[in-house]
Write a structure and sequence with these properties.
Elements (H helix, E strand, L loop, with lengths): L4 E5 L3 H12 L5 E6 L32 H4 L2 E5 L3 E5 L4 E4 L4 E3 L2 E4 L3 E3 L12 E2 L4 H13 L2 E5 L3 H12 L3 E6 L6 H18 L3 E4 L3 E5 L6 E4 L4 E3 L2 E4 L3 E3 L2 H5 L8 E3 L10 E3 L4 E5 L4 E4 L3 H15 L11 E6 L2 E7 L6 E7 L4 E8 L2 E8 L5 H10 L5 H5 L5 H4 L8
Parallel strand pairs: 1-2, 1-7, 2-3, 7-19, 9-16, 10-11, 10-16, 11-12, 18-20
Antiparallel strand pairs: 4-5, 5-6, 8-17, 13-14, 14-15, 20-21, 22-23, 23-26, 24-25, 25-26
The protein binds flavin-adenine dinucleotide (FAD).
């Protein structure tokens, strides 16, 4: 048996899947998985969806069964934080006073909600949503009903708003942008989601910032930047996340909007790797470093980092993918499109079933299928092909997407 020690900091999806991969790839040394939350690793997507609404048992949110870690000799240490890393000595310090040395170190410290710093932000009744504990508190609020103001119409804010509405709450969704998620997806998709929320009875205040939370100890009102007061029973803030890089920074690792890693997910210091929301990894397909805050990235990048830690060849070049569910609208998005010059549609937005494509120089950079299934692989093939496409063929549902990618339906 190997006497090597591999330490993983951050016991969430990326960390847990990395530990699993180390064992399934035959590593028989010591694996220590340390997480600051009291829970064993769980998945976060249900926290704005079925688990939040009380439709799914808590057990379903966990990444593994309770016995998994012991069975695989993974030393899962929950409720403890790694407080420092000394890369020179290959040593970490833990909040309970212990120090451990490592042969390989993986940082999967994830991201945390960006805090809003306006007057009243510390009042009771102003919530963020990242952890199971946050979600449990909000489940209680959904149970009690009333009026919630959701600040930020990004994915977390929008999904929370949809779930609150589905539970019968009165919901106001406020965002400084003119349309939900407009900066990332543009006006067409923004308008689609605006209309979806409206149809479901959400009160939208778009193009409107928030100036303060007001109340005596507990939030009673949100004051919009225009001065308008919005009375509420509680508020939820979803204004994005920031990568948790403090540990890495203090250890002298290279950080710039995330912990910088190469295509093998190795950081700037020997034997240190990173994966998941915290990592800004060089993606050879794009020829640049990107940081991806999606479930599938944590799911795949954690195991890829594990293989790299074992010395296997790794070149992480996956196309980013995420999904979102709001009301009865399910969607999947693949790609990376920081800039585009047109958005084309296959299918009709008005009946809520379509595929949107973001193009630059006639090439598809990204695609979003809304209530249309089993096309994601084809969208990814199209992106990967980098082939210029004929707009009419792209918009024609009778033309197989695979043929536009230069492949047959069987993928050849
Ligand atoms: C409510 C919600 C809904 C979401 N829904 C979707 C969705 O529908 N689709 C989608 O694609 N993505 C979704 N996401 C995003 C997805 O969940 C994240 O991309 C994913 O959780 C990232 O996993 P991770 O393991 O990299 O990091 P995280 O999940 O952020 O976990 C990092 C862990 O590291 C721990 N940690 C940090 N520092 C230390 C330390 N010093 N010592 C010990 N432990 C530490 C943290 O406590 C945390 O548990 C959602 C996210 C949230 C919050």
């Amino acid at each position: 048996m190997s006497n090597r020690t591999y330490i993983i900091v951050g016991a969430s999806l990326a960390g847990a899947k990395a530990a699993e991969e180390l064992r399934s790839e035959g590593f028989d040394g010591r694996i220590v998985l340390i997480g600051s939350e009291p829970e064993r690793p769980y998945e976060r997507p249900p926290l704005t969806k079925d688990y939040l609404r009380g439709e799914t048992a808590r057990e379903k949110t966990y990444v593994h069964d309770p016995g998994f870690y012991e069975e695989h000799r993974i030393e899962l240490e929950t409720g403890l934080s790694v407080t420092s890393i000394d890369p020179g000595a290959a040593r970490i310090s833990i909040s309970d006073g212990r120090e451990l040395t490592y042969d390989r170190l993986l940082l999967t410290t994830g991201a945390e909600p960006r805090r809003i710093s306006i007057p009243g932000a510390g009042l009771d009744g102003v919530y963020y949503l990242r952890t199971l504990a946050d979600c449990d508190a909000l489940r209680g609020r959904l149970e009690a009903g009333g009026h919630v103001v959701v600040v930020g119409a990004g994915w977390i804010g929008s999904e929370f708003a949809a779930s609150a509405r589905m539970r019968g709450l009165e919901v106001t969704l406020i965002d400084p942008l003119a349309l939900p998620n407009e900066r990332i997806f543009g006006a067409e998709i923004g308008a689609f989601y605006r209309d979806v929320h409206r149809q479901h009875g959400i009160k939208l205040m778009l193009g409107e910032g928030v100036e303060a939370f007001e109340g005596k100890g507990v939030v009673e009102r949100v004051r919009a930047a225009s001065g308008k007061p919005i009375a509420c029973d509680f508020a939820v803030v979803g204004v994005g996340v920031v990568p948790r890089v403090d540990l890495a920074l203090e250890a002298g690792l290279e950080v710039d909007n995330g912990l910088l890693v190469d295509e093998t997910l190795a950081a700037s210091s020997p034997h240190v790797f990173a994966a998941g929301d915290v990592a800004r990894a060089f993606n050879p397909f794009y020829g640049e470093r990107i940081r991806v805050e999606h479930w599938s990235n944590a799911l795949n990048q954690g195991p890829a980092a594990a293989r790299a830690m074992l010395g296997q060849p790794v070149s992480y070049d996956r196309i980013p993918y995420f999904y979102s569910d709001q009301y009865d609208i399910g969607m999947e998005y693949s790609g990376y499109a920081p800039q585009w010059d047109e958005v084309l549609f296959r299918g009709d937005r008005s009946d809520g079933k379509f595929v949107a494509f973001w193009l630059r120089d006639h090439r598809v950079l990204a695609g979003m299928n809304v209530n249309v299934w089993d096309v994601n692989e084809q969208v990814q093939a199209l992106i990967r092909s980098r082939r210029p496409v004929d707009p009419a063929a792209l918009c024609d549902p009778d033309v197989p997407l695979m043929s536009l990618a230069g492949e047959t339906a069987s993928g050849r």
